[in-house]
Amino acid sequence: MHIDQQLSRRAFLTRGAQLALAGTAAPFVGSLGWIGEAAAATATDYKALVCVFLYGGNDYANTLPPYDAAGHALYQRYRPTLALGRDALAATALRPDQALPDGREYALAPALSPLLPLFDGGKMAIVLNVGTLEQPLTKAQYVARSAPIPPKLFSHNDQQSFFQASNPEGAETGWGGRIGDMVYAGNGAAALTCINASGNAVYVSGRQAIPYTIGGAGPVSLLRESRTLYGSATAAQTLRQLMTEGGQTLFADDYSATVRRALDTYGRVNGALAGAPADNFPLFPAGETLADQLKLVARLISASADLGVKRQVFFVSLGGWDHHDSLLTKHPAQLARVAAAMRAFYDTTMSLGVADKVTTFTASDFGRTLSSNGDGSDHGWGAMHWVMGGAVKGRRFYGRAPQIGSNTSDDVGAGRLLPSTSVDQYAATLASWFGVADGDLTTVLPNLGNWDRSGWNLGFV
Questions:
Q1: pLDDT tens string 367-405
Q2: By its UniProt entry, which PANTHER family does this protein fall under (predicted)?
Q3: Does a structural domain hold residue 296?
Q4: Over 80: is that where the pLDDT of 219 sits?
Q5: Concatenated DSSP letters for 53-107?
Q6: What value does the mean pLDDT of the chain take?
Q7: Which domain holds residue 186?
Q8: How confident is the model at residue 229 (pLDDT cuts 50, 70, 90)?
Q9: Do 15 and 280 meet the contact criterion of CB atoms below 8 Å apart?
Q10: In the chain, at which end, N or C, are there fewer CB atoms within 10 A of the end residue's CB?
Q11: For the chain, how many structural domains are there in total?
Q12: What does the angle CA 433 – CA 438 – CA 444 come to, to the nearest 5 degrees?
């Protein structure tokens, strides 16, 4: 099922205004677009969803290796050059409150050890074998092509988009943005409902809730506060007037209104962040891309009361996960970056007193093959993800543990996992916690209705 992507005249005009800003003035406005401020927020509390997207396809088998003796032996058999030794996993073996069937056990990769106390403390949960699906799918249906299969499987761009938007590359809206649409009209600062801290991503694009894009150091001002344009102060002043004063057409009026709202939002965000300086957030490692993004998100969350916003959806990301080679050296370093940044973020939400109001979760293009290509792994499908936050029902696994090996009922080739939990179910669970009504879930997630309603909410939060 494809999402209706028809835009209203006003949205079309405003998006046109954004495109017109794509040259010299683009950094200041980002993707602000069509934003109308609501008079007051109807929610009485604050909640935030934070998506941590790992671009390139994270290797699931060395992120959450099997730890039980039988499972680890199979894991080592099918990736002899890549498997992490069982002795090396003893310190990060997971001891859930509810054991998995058949004696199955997992460990966190040693590089993820900073997150182990969160799991042990019930503030982190593991969701098993999550991936893009249009409906429940068996291996027999996949082989016979007798049921819908997500288009362009194993393609980075398309599966990134399908994970974020339920549609391949070219989608106009993502499910984070559509969640934002549901709370947009009642959010006190509607322009700040969806915030992208890492560049372009369809995940936080809604029909009304257009993402506010922000740089690592904060919002970027009009023309970067430059007083000259091509060396001319007059040219800079003239451009500012053209951008804000409107004109004789509907397009010009919408364009100038967009710019004025962008300027107003910039002033509000910049002022709020001035009251939450980066030096007040010392837990984050310095000079790390993901840590810098999450630090900015933490600063914005700390200023949410000043900004008058009650519901926010954030997007951060880290690239560099396409490990066709050098997996044993590159992958642990990447996981260590994620662990340090996410642990610092959780501890910061604790110090702010909002840990139970912020839920953070991982996402990626796809998992990778269990079989090695010698020095790395190739594009796969299902993957393991984790969710953390004070509201998470942690120290548990959710979903079904896949069989380990080649040519199993969970494997579509080379250890590519056929997902047993859909992104839609994963997303619906998060959306329900955020406050999206059951009757609105299929608007946010158009494929969700293909699953039995009893399976919509996985229960991890």
A1: 999 999 989 999 999 999 999 999 999 999 999 999 999
A2: BLL7424 PROTEIN, DUF1501 DOMAIN-CONTAINING PROTEIN
A3: yes
A4: no
A5: EETT---STTTS-B-SHHHHHHHHHH-TTTPPPHHHHGGGB---SSPPGGG--BB
A6: 88
A7: 9-455
A8: low
A9: no
A10: N
A11: 1
A12: 80
